[in-house]
Give the backbone structure.
Amino acid sequence: MQIAVTELWNKCLNIIRDDISEQSFTTWFSPIVPLKFQNNTLTIQVPSQFFYEWLEENFVSSLRKAIDHTIGRQGMLEYSIIVDKGDRKNPPLSFNLPTTNQNPSKDFINQQAAKSPFQFKNLDSLELDSYLIPKYTFDKFIEGDCNRLGRAAGMAVANKPGLTSFNPLMIYGGVGLGKTHLIQAIGNEIKQQFPDKFVLYVSTEKFTNQFVNAIRNNSIEAFTNFYLQVDVLIIDDVQFLSGKEKTQETFFNIFNHLHQSGKQIILSSDRAPRDLAGMEDRLLSRFKWGLTADLQQPDFETRIAIIQKKLQDDGIQIDFEVLEYLAHSIQTNVRELEGVIISLMAQASLTRKEIDLDLAKATLKSIVNEQEKELSVENILEAVTHHFSVDLSTLQGKCRKKENVFPRQVAMYMLKELTNLPLKSIGYHFGGRDHSTVIHAVQSISEAMETDKTVEKTVKKLFNRFNLNTH
Ligand code: ADP
Ligand code: MG
């Protein structure tokens, strides 16, 4: 009996939907068209090569799970990629690719391993899973002033694990600034240079869960023994150890043992050791034995380089104008920057448009969160142009007439107060003025607000539009 392909695909979608975020589901699964189901093979149509690669890289396990549940282990997935949209006369040209994951059991073995990583007795280290993600390499980790020390120390450790004075190496920094990437890169590099070493990456959360399970199953000894075999222990986000006394105690013992045996330990944390609360002093003092290096927000040039690299890796070229716009508009962290680039590539691939300034602006607008959307450059400039009845082009232009200079300075002042854009980026949004012009504007308005009640009132009124008060 012929199973209706749409029905089959809908079943798959229901399984996938539970696995991934709503946004990912809409972006990556809504555009897929199920084509046929034959010989246990489901063929789905995707809009582009990029789309296919993205699915394979990010959602393969969810896809596999869906196929297993609906067709069974022998089920296969085949992609049909549209290379030409065609028109009414000529049907779309497409080619088929079987999924790269044709070994359905592979994922399940990995999942099993994840559940009980310390039952490995008969395997040698080559077969042990390091939980390293291949794409996180040094090569892909762009160097800038923001990460120079951490990167260099990481390289040194990778070249001589356990033999430098950087033991432990502790990398700390805010969210999305590259901690996981960097410590994974160290692991990957060590694996490359010393294939026999047992490198293990583990998140603190996972470590804690394993520990809790080990207590429950009476297998603390197996747990500890497992960790004592590791040559390079990479433990991510140690701030999550805070307040967990028992886990800390066990970690402390493992740490000491490994350290004494000359094994390398690499840690990451979202804050400096001195700011880690709820942590035993003896453990904290161990963290400071080696080298502590922080990762900071990348500066403008580094952001440009990061975007360039990401696009280059995907074989995409964009105008410098677009690069500049993105680098000036996303300041928060690299993960966000990356998110925008990925959405941009998805948009461009879906709509078959070039990535240009308009597309970049539209994409950015659609993905920043509500709070940021409120306080976006566009909204602030709009509030000012509206209030003073000036054109946007005049506000951003060069005209030195007093009736234009004042609103312009107010707009600069507001951007400075309401966003975290650096001066240089604020200047960029006013026809590329330099940072001293922005400083001057901010000072003039601050002074005027103190001496002139009407100026103060005007600015306050504008701030009130954003439900904020001047301080
Ligand atoms: P953290 O662990 O600090 O929260 P991640 O390591 O997960 O941050 O980094 C977030 C994203 O930004 C990752 O995809 C990472 O590859 C990317 N990233 C961060 N810093 C850099 C950098 N210097 N060069 C290239 N990519 C970077
Ligand atoms: Mg991380």
